[in-house]
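Quick note —
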Amino acid sequence: MRQGQIEGEWIDLGMWRFHLGEMCGVKGEERVTFTKNEWKLLRLFLDHPKQILSKTQILEQVFDVDGELFLL
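Predicted structure written out below.
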């Protein structure tokens, strides 16, 4: 499988595997669970590889127009 490729509910990226349904990452034996906002940021970067995102683009993905957090 190529780096950054999606297999089922997993995204492989380098030494990390990210599970889309569980909001977690696995590196070897280490498992990291992300908060909703951490997961939103990670997914934003995973969905836009090698792209430069502006501060506005990033904030719009995490916050609504009033600055309130989006609920998943």
